[in-house]
Amino acid sequence: MLTLGLIRRRGEVFPRRIPGLRGRRVPPLPAVVPAGSVSIIGTVAEFTYVRLGFTEGFEPDDWGAWLPSCLWPIWGAALAVAAASYHRRRSHDARQALEH
Description:
By secondary structure, the protein is an all-alpha fold. The chain has four helices and no strands.
């Protein structure tokens, strides 16, 4: 959900179901900081897990546990790109609003 919120319109405007904030624009930093933190922490932790798995050996019978987790670094990189793009897009929108 975090990644989808960064790439969809619903990540830019608070939904109607949130009283007091509905329809207002979401400030960029409260969305970018958690996304950036999760992408860094998750990617580093998963690279450590994968490295340990390759050095100590994955059990072939447990492939259902370790194989999906090998994809987490890809998700972490995608989340970092989404957070950076969101920040850039929203900062650009804010600058244009100030100029007009």
